[in-house]
Each structure stands twice: as C-alpha cells, then as structure tokens.
Amino acid sequence: MSSLRYVQGPVQTRNAGMLRNSVSGIRATYETDPEVIAAARAAKGITPRSFPADEIVTRLLRAMAEEGEALLAEGIAARASDIDLVMINGYGFPAHKGGPMFIAADGSR
Predict the structure, then answer these.
(1) I need a labelling partner for 95 at 20 to 30 A (CA). Which of 26, 52, 102, 106 fits?
(2) Nearest alpha carbon to residue 64 among 52, 80, 53
(3) Which run of H or of E encompasses 13?
C-alpha cells in the first residue's frame, strides 16, 4: 500500500471557528479545505471515486491481516490465534467472524 496519497507534508487546514466545551474550556475545531484537497488531487492526477462497502471491508481486513503477519514475523505475537483473540476481546472485532487472521487464512474474504 502506498503512504499518503493526497498531501505530502503537513495537512493544510483552515480554522472552522471556536467551540466552547463546558469541561475543558475553549477548543479549536478545524476542517479540511476542499480547495486544498482539489488542488492536491489535480497535481497528482487523482480522480475521486466511490468505494463499495465490500471493497472497504476487504481492504481493511487485508491491512489488519498484513499487520498481524508483521507481528508474527517480528516475534511480537506467538500465534495468529493470539492476534485474533486480542482483536475480538480488546478491540471489539465481531467474534462470530473469527478474527482478521482467521479470515485471511480461511480465504473467505
């Protein structure tokens, strides 16, 4: 996978105003500037497109499985099932799916 596609260097934003938070006081909010995004896309020749939900899920699962493989290769995790247990119990991955490592090994996605 490539790293940042749209903007190289610091992300350019504009101040979208100030909001008062009753707990922490004043907090600044920011939004991305559509003109900055459009210029960066044009400079790289990128045309925006929609992604179907199943493609998004497949890409996310692939990224999780690749990171899991890196954990195994570095010896941080002993077994793929250990990674799945952490993802299910620690991060809320749906237990009935078996975990990202299980899905990658199963080839069902």
Answers:
(1) 52
(2) 80
(3) strand 13-21
pLDDT at position 15:
45
Query: Where do the CATH 1.10.1040.10 domains begin and end in the chain?
Result: 53-106
CA distances from 34 to 19, 27, 67, 70, 95 (A): 21, 22, 32, 36, 39
Q: Looking at domain 53-106, which CATH architecture does it have?
A: Orthogonal Bundle (1.10)
User: Phi, psi (5° rounding) for residue 29?
Assistant: -120, 150
Residue 50 burial (CB < 10 Å; 0-12/13-18/19+)? exposed
